[in-house]
Write a structure and sequence with these properties.
Chain lengths: ~325, ~375
């Protein structure tokens, strides 16, 4: 197993290298200089560019870029938004907020999704199942930012909950102001989990061991929770982990709507003001999240299905 | 022997068939794959409703921006038609479309001033109170009369903060969103099909290298790819199409490859090869039609995802930029005044939600009708 994980980790680092190279060249080929300001003199611009090595040829810059990261762990400083502050320091306050928002949404979604999925499977074809089915389609289809607007209007302006993120408040107040964004983001994962679990449970309900459970006198609900659920929970990991990347996309907008000071807000600013290394850091952040989720998935697969982790040893996969 | 490459059809005769089969040919027409799927789909009420909704939305997206005389970019600032509430003649009995608006905290004494409040524009006053000794109230007014607009001025969805007609902008935005979605999915299908077909058919080293490239592309998150494309090419419709197809094709390629692997060993492929059919002909005429079901299904499934991504990129200001509307940037503009003018958010939000629901229902129906299991 450790060998399998190591191999996956190696691949991950390689992929990250490719992504960062791609990002570097796109960022450097992007038209416009970060110091292009009509109010500053050309000499000052030249000086600033020299200071940040922006006047060198692109391959030389590329060399500096990697040398700094590998030798000094130096990822560059923000050029415009918070000048001369190391990029990760700029993001340090924002990454936890984004992560908390996203993970809370998914954590909140899991119990509701499981409950709805179980209820739906239990009443398959009857009215509760039909209702949940309609709700599922609506929740999967309607974009999270539409939910966000609706919630902000209905529960915020009309209902008295916090309209925007309360960044000055105490921890409890901040958490309270996260209710609406979390709610807006959790509809989609709830529906996704529910739909998946329903399908999985229905498949399990027709198996022999469910017949046995019935034969030994368990009620349908008992056999569902004690036998069918257990077998359906394991593959659920493969649905929940990719939800993280899905939710992260919507959270860019939801953060904007509720003025949550997360990574999403700074990304647009960094791009439009040509804050090169900050853009790089944000993109690396999103890539790493994606890669980590893929890695988690691979590990989960490996744990669940021994054939996958053994495939590498025989050299069959490569 | 090799000179006779082309075989004529009449050279083939049935060896062991002296007379037609007993009972003659079967009556009726044979059900084709597509016909069968269509029949299945027609039985699915949700899918039929989805098709109807989509048809209406597409027709509206094409024609509705020209239904009135306002343009999507003309700002009616001179007339001061800013943030007008929606009004539709004939539908004014619906509260949403009666063109009324509530003005907060107005002095009661000024209400009789016809220079400020034209004759008959005050519908009712409520919430009467005194602020700093002055009696004030919230006033519901006929906003069109209040602004001095005539009977023939009707903004069906209202106007935005710059005095632009939201009806025209919303439908034009729908058009842009649909156009981007269709084009991006088409591009995704074209690249993915060719890529997957080559991988699946040729196999070996070609397959290995091409699939490794797929894996790397797949590992880059959508947000990152779209951002990079937009930084490189600037925002706009063309960029959005490219950016959205840029990663999605990998899924299509993997799907098509799997289908090719499944079918390339079949007897009819061997038969075609023996008869000297070229690789391209076998791939396009013999194998691809068999993979059509899953590909079509994937295409329809991909559309809502693309619409969502486009909308959220435009929302955060990376996608389609003003003055060109898209559902995303319309919602972003309306968001700023949500508390005051919720109808500005309502219509684009309704349309994008309807569109997404319809595409999801259609893809659910198609999945059942084509009887393909995707993922």
């Amino acid at each position: 197993m450790s060998r399998y994980v190591l191999k996956r980790l190696g691949l991950m680092v390689l992929t990250l290298f490719v992504i960062m190279t791609l990002c570097f060249f796109v960022i450097r080929l992007m038209p416009g200089s970060p110091f292009d300001d009509p109010e500053s003199s050309p000499e000052l611009e030249a000086l600033l560019e020299e200071k940040h090595h922006l006047n060198e040829s692109i391959p030389v810059q590329y060399y500096y870029f990697w040398r700094d990261i590998i030798a000094d762990g130096y990822w560059g400083v923000s050029l415009k938004i918070e000048p001369n502050v190391p990029v990760w320091k700029v993001l340090a306050g924002r990454i936890p907020v984004t992560l908390v928002l996203n993970l809370l949404s998914i954590a909140a979604a899991i119990p509701f999704g499981i409950l709805a999925g179980a209820l739906s499977a239990r009443t398959a074809g009857k009215i509760p199942d039909r209702l949940i089915g309609i709700l599922t389609v609506v929740c999967i289809s309607v974009p999270s930012f539409v939910f966000a607007s609706a919630l902000q209007y209905g529960l915020g302006y009309r209902g008295g909950l916090d309209i925007i993120y309360n960044s000055a408040g105490t921890a409890a107040e901040r958490l309270r102001s996260l209710i609406l964004p979390v709610l807006a983001l959790s509809f989609w994962p709830i529906a996704t989990i529910c739909r998946y679990l329903r399908g999985e449970l229905l498949e399990n309900l027709n198996t022999d061991y469910m017949l046995l459970a019935k034969a030994k006198g368990l009620t349908p609900s008992q056999s569902l929770t004690r036998h069918a659920m257990r077998n359906s929970m394991v593959p659920l990991v493969n649905v929940i982990v990719p939800l993280i990347t899905g939710v992260l996309g919507g959270s860019l907008v939801v953060e904007k709507i509720f003025a949550v000071p997360g990574v999403g807000g700074i990304m647009t600013q960094a791009i439009s003001s040509r804050d090169l290394w900050l853009v790089m850091a944000v993109l690396v952040f999103y890539s790493v999240i994606n890669l980590v989720t893929v890695l988690l998935m691979d590990i989960a697969y490996g744990l669940i299905d021994p054939r996958i982790r053994l495939a590498g040893r025989k050299g069959g996969a490569a | 022997m090799t000179e006779q490459k082309k075989t004529k059809k009449n050279l083939f005769v049935f060896a062991n068939r002296p007379e037609p089969a007993a009972g003659g040919p079967l009556p009726g027409k044979a059900a084709s794959y597509a016909g069968d799927a269509l029949r299945q789909l027609r039985k699915d009420a949700a899918a039929v409703a989805a098709v109807a909704i989509l048809a209406v939305l597409v027709l509206m997206a094409v024609f509705a921006p020209d239904f009135n005389e306002y343009s999507y970019r003309r700002q009616l600032l001179a007339e001061d038609y800013v943030n007008m509430p929606p009004r539709i003649r004939g539908l004014t009995w619906i509260p949403l479309f009666n063109g009324h608006a509530t003005l907060k905290e107005r002095q009661l004494s000024s209400l009789s001033d016809t220079a400020k409040y034209p004759e008959g524009c005050v519908i009712r006053t409520f919430n009467e109170r005194t602020v700093r000794g002055i009696p004030v109230a919230d006033v519901e007014v006929d906003y069109y009369l209040y602004k001095g607009a005539g009977e023939d001025v009707n903004f069906w969805f209202g106007t935005d903060a710059l005095g632009r007609d939201i009806w025209t902008r919303t439908w034009r935005g729908t058009r842009v969103s649909l156009l981007i979605a269709f084009a991006a999915v088409l591009l995704d299908l074209m690249i993915g099909t060719v890529w997957g077909a080559v991988c699946g058919w040729y196999g070996g080293k070609t397959d290995l290298i091409l699939m490794r490239i797929c894996e790397v592309v797949r590992a880059i998150p959508n947000v990152v790819i779209c951002t990079l494309m937009i930084m490189l090419m600037g925002s706009g419709v063309g960029t959005m199409i490219l950016a959205l197809a840029c990663r999605n094709w990998v899924g299509t390629a993997q799907l098509v490859r799997a289908q090719f692997l499944r079918f390339k060993g079949r007897e009819y492929v061997l038969a075609a090869q023996t008869m000297g059919a070229s690789d391209v002909r076998i791939m396009s005429r013999h194998i691809l039609p068999n993979a059509a079901g899953p590909i079509i299904n994937r295409a329809v499934m991909a559309v809502p995802g693309v619409i969502f991504t486009e909308a959220f990129l435009s929302y955060i200001g990376l996608g389609i930029a003003a003055p060109e509307p898209s559902l995303g940037n319309l919602l972003a503009e309306a968001q700023g005044v949500l508390g005051l003018y919720p109808t500005q958010t309502l219509f684009p939000a309704l349309i994008i939600s309807l569109m997404m629901i319809a595409f999801h229902l259609l893809s659910n129906g198609l999945r059942d009708a084509l009887d393909t299991k995707t993922y």
